[in-house]
Amino acid sequence: MIAQIAIDLPNFEALDYLYVPKNSLKKPKESIVGHWVIVEVRNKKKIGLVVGLKSHTSARQVKQIEVVIDNLPPVDESFIKFLTFIANYYHRALGKVVFNSFPTSLKSIKNLEADYINKKKNYFFGPNEINKKKNQHMVSWELNQEQKKCYESICLARKPILLHGTTGSGKTRVYFSVIKKLLQDQKSAQVLYLVPEIGLTPRLHELLQSYFSSSEIEVYNSTQTPLARAKTWLKMSTGKANIVLGTRMAIFLPLPNLKLIIVDEEHDTSFKQSEGFRYSARDLAVYRASILGIKLILGSATPSLESWMQSKRTKYKYLAIKNRASNQPLPKLTIFKKNYYSHEHGISEKSLKLLKTHISSGNQALLYLNKKGWAPVFSCTECNWSAKCINCSVNLVLHKEKKEFLLCHFCGHEELPTRICRNCGSNRLKLSGMGTEQLTHKISELLPNARIMRIDKQLIKRKKEFDDCLNKIENGDVDIIIGTQILTKGHDFTKVSLVIAMEIESNLKHPDFRASERLFQSLIQVSGRAGRHPQEPTTYQEPVFITEVIDTQNDFLTFLSNASYVDFAENLIKERKNWSLPPFTNLATINLTHPNRDILENETDKILVALDEIVTNFQKSKVKYSGPLKVFPEKLSKKYRSRILLEANKRADLHKVLYAIKPKIINIVAKAIIDVDPIDF
Distance between CA atoms of 678 and 558, rounded to whole angstroms? Predict the structure, then answer.
């Protein structure tokens, strides 16, 4: 009998190995599919997954499976089907899919041969140590009428659910109620709870532990130690834990009793892997739920247009929560025109006056600026030279945290700022633009007694640091929070009553057709941090959302001032349909990189010539392609980049061309990656 085995190797599908039951701990032939095995590849031992059996092979010589690994739990047929779909849809080698988020400590042949899992079974399979003090205060709440109506509809629904709840509407309460009902009905059921950012995990994990104190709850993300990740993988794949809270990588967990998937903030682009294997965890959640016939909830205050259209096409059941759980009003948008004072001090006089009023009342304010560092451009006024990264074709950003340095936000290159222009020798250098560091400095000068906290990924590099910041905000030890988009997602700040969004217009000038959608989503999300909870009458301030712009008549601001995502989405739908853009067409890109620009151009031309032949054979009207397209930045980490765009009305036509071009891509000198349903342009 020949076993087909997926191994962690690029550009290889499943490899054939001889399966002899007597050398496999006397397992019956039928049971070997789904088991993890050790095989020899190129004189090295590797772990693999048996994905199928067949009676014969075309290979001249076939090696024998060395060991069937008994203490690694096998996966079921539906999970293999799921992995195979991923490999086919994203045109990725099956072995690379299988081992995409597989724990490194469990992949080690040395560990497996040393009986690593049995030696650590008390750690891997023992109960989690839960802080008892945290669980003395059990979380419990009653659903209001809107939430209850949605909960009841979810329980009865047979389709994926798009839960569109305004910021602070209590979507989490609905999720928890659905989980509670599921675990009451099926004690062994498993729940996959996906969130877009690691920063959302700690508080939500605490909440889950408090609400489901008798259930085993695990976390799965990239910040875990290899040992902790192995523990979660083993517990979930053996069905010993009920709930796993994870980022996009958790979609690859084997879950034998999976009955519910929740994708919170489903619109968030973080669910799409942007490098290497470019999968969408949200889209995979939809497929996984469909093949298992289980419930799927996609939740957001600002749904993606793709999900919005699926609900309009009745593929998803649309449910809405229009009011906040606290019955507090949504923040009112105020638009201020930028003036000289704004450019000089980072904030207008009107905004400053409101800022003083809110923090003097004992409330907190959040200033949102999605630019890290001190200044994004360091340039010469004489010749327009600007400091650029030696590895990437981008400007270096000036930072003044502890020391003054220029930093590339793409590759991490650092250098000291020059005092004279490197092009013409002039000492007339200037800084342009403003980042969170400079804004913090300017606000501290305007309000020297205010307690200001800056939060961005440059400053918050470890989970504990972020947790400490959130605790200080919750305890009222902070008056003004200044931060980037890390603060827009899911955080429940009880004392924030004022949000000011800075420098938003540059986002509208971005060539990406999704730029306005993303900006609207981020602004609605960040504005929703204000006024979420009732305040004492003595400290009450009506929640306010301010944005300062140069062009106050922009159509975008009209939609934003009405805070109507429905109207904005419907308007975008018309635009996308007119221009034949997603979700009314299907896209894929072939992304090529090489250190030498000339070689990259030649290799791109080879792919274009091959595409012309393939598309002509498949009827040119069905699939369109264009390229090479400009990519920003053109050079990244010492490699030049180019892109070819493919478009088709029918997804099957698009994949037909991608399958045909794949062998050509594998054999070129440049590195090439296929991205199906790309989101970055």
Answer: 29
